[in-house]
Amino acid sequence: MKITVIGTGYVGLVTGTCFAEVGMDVTCVDIDQKKIDNLKNGILPIYEPGLDEMVQRNALKHRLHFSTSLQESIKDAEVAFIAVGTPPDEDGSADLKYVLAVAAGIGQYMQKPIVVVTKSTVPVTTAEKVRKALQTELEKRGSDLQFYVASNPEFLKEGAAIEDFMKPDRIVVGTDSHEAEEIMRRLYKPFLMNGHPIIFMDIPSAEMTKYAANAMLATKISFMNDVANLCEIMGADVNMVRKGIGSDGRIGPKFIYPGVGYGGSCFPKDVKALIKTAKEKKYDMRILNAVEEVNEAQKEVLFNKVKDHFKNNLKGKKFALWGLSFKPKTDDMREAPSLVIIEKLVKAGASVVAYDPIAKHETQRIIGDTIGYSDDMYDALNDAEALLIITEWPEFRSPDFEEVTKRLKSKLIFDGRNIFDHKEMKSLGYNYYCIGVKTN
Are the beta carbons of 334 and 264 closer than 8 angstroms? Predict the structure, then answer.
């Protein structure tokens, strides 16, 4: 089966590569010539564990191709995935101009019947706008070529995207035609061999499923952060509370770890978009408004602990940060809590030296030399007043505390991810602050 994937960002590149891995003939299209040239040379625009090897392997086997020409890439395709960005507008709604521009381009250049699939995260009713854009272009050509529209939202976790695609919890497909359903079923057949479910539904329900899923996960995170803050006030230990409620099968242990707030490309944008969609229909998403409010406040919690410890005097003080990306195993800095914490420290007159295994260059692209960067986690600690842990990279979990003590000015750690045991830290003589536990 010949597939065209338009957009070579996170979703598009993972989608195209994984389809190629199971034998499909895939062309990934992007208007960015430099990005396409880099991909042809095995240089990826994103970091995702295992993806670079998979891209190179399938390119060498001539199953995965890269192009800037939609016209050439779409003419033989049976399925076209739209996987371009949907950045938030100033009012929080998803900007669909790139999605609709691609739909119009497909209408201009398609030469045979095709299924056009929205893979980007898009609001309910987007498929109808895509259908209209396609039909408008075909009418301009005087063409009666048949096309079908489908919604196939992605549920990929950054850092585990290949596993998620190859062994999905579920595959959700929204269609309104038998023909599109059969083609999508055939397309996903290689991923269903081990019993992974494919769920067909109407298109608006599929579009809503993506937003509802991300909003639910964001809600769990903000709920737990709210509970953590109350635990600290009341003298309870949020780590014990988390274990207590996570063992309840109705709640489960995932996404209830307290921290410095969620970030990334999905949760912040999708929560805002769902709130905006509801507002357009004069419905107030009261829980999601609170979820967003809690998350924004949570990004400041660790900074406030630092500020309180130093009695509001941070001027001239140096701090070490471990972790910059919004989560481990990615270089994604979109909505990363580290950016808020860095901004507040610098504004208060402090200097910052940060270490992250992957996200250094992406952070430099965003904030430049506002802070210093270290290529070694221990070197970042040299002469710092304290260590702030922002991202829970595995290499931070069992550090050499003798080395940490030797490098820091004092035994002071602010742990925004609760990766250490506060009782053990106290026994080691550290002044240790974390989330949801009253340690001082």
Answer: yes
**114-141 pLDDT per residue, tens:** 999 999 888 888 999 999 999 999 999 9
Amino acid 205: pLDDT: 96
Q: Give the chain's radius of gyration (CA, Å).
A: 24
- Structural contact between residues 346 and 352, judged by C-beta atoms closer than 8 angstroms: yes
Output the CA torsion 181→183→189→190 (10° steps).
-140
Distance CA 292, CA 159 (A): 24
Residues that are catalytic: 266
Where in 88-146 does DSSP place strands (E)?
114-118
Kindly report the pTM of this predicted structure.
0.90
DSSP-derived letter for residue 75 is T
Helix (H, G, I), strand (E, B) or coil at 421: coil
- pLDDT for residue 195: 79
d(CA 336, CA 326): 4
DSSP string, 191-223: GSTT---EEEE-HHHHHHHHHHHHHHHHHHHHH
Sign of CA dihedral 304, 345, 420, 253: positive
End-to-end CA separation in angstroms for the chain: 62
Listing DSSP states for 228-244 in one string gives: HHHHHHHT--HHHHHHH
What own/partner pairs with CB < 8 Å and gap ≥ 24 does 277-281 have? Answer: 277/93, 277/123, 277/124, 277/211, 280/93
Domains of the chain with bracketed CATH: 2-201 (3.40.50.720), 211-297 (1.10.1040.10), 299-433 (3.40.50.720)
CA geometry: angle 267, 269, 275, nearest 5 deg: 95
Q: Are 358 and 395 in contact (CB under 8 A)?
A: no
Higher pLDDT pick, 192 / 343: 343
